[in-house]
Amino acid sequence: MLLKETGIGGQQGTLADLDIAMDSLGFTRFAWDYTHATYDYKLKDRDTTYYLRIQAHCVEGKMEDPDTVLKLDEPFIGKHLFPHGIDYDCPMPDGVLNNAKQILQGLKDKLA
After folding, report:
1. Which InterPro entries does the record associate with it (predicted)?
2. Residue 27 domain-assigned?
3. Between 15-25 and 94-111, two packed helices, what is the crossing angle to 10 degrees?
């Protein structure tokens, strides 16, 4: 599920600054290559795991340089499927969505 109108999509920052901001909120830079990175935040609801995910793409430089400038995409959220995979089209519990929105507001505040 794409989370629109969060104020996150289009934000820019250096790799170093984004890593610090994301890490302070509990995000992990999970996957990356030379042109993009994915930040994940694990959310639990009873026995189900959801991932709040934000992708970032290089607009200046390459990922190994802390001064590389990244542009964030709109965040999205999905339900983890065992043993692996994520369903981005399933309905999300209100509690999970509200928690995700609070986390994203915290990120927006840090990036301001």
Report:
1. Uncharacterised_YugN-like, YugN-like_sf
2. yes
3. 140
Other CB atoms within 10 Å distance of the CB of residue 70:
24
Residue 79 lies in a domain: yes
**75: CATH:** 3.30.310.100
Amino acid identity of 84? Answer: H
pLDDT in tens, 91-108: 999 999 999 999 999 999
Provide the residue type at 62 as one letter: K
Sole residue written with tokens 């927006």: 108
Q: Domain for residue 39, yes or no?
A: yes
The encoded tokens of residue 49 equal 């795991």
**Statement: the pTM of the whole predicted model exceeds 0.90:** yes
Q: What is the mean pLDDT of residues 66-92?
A: 94
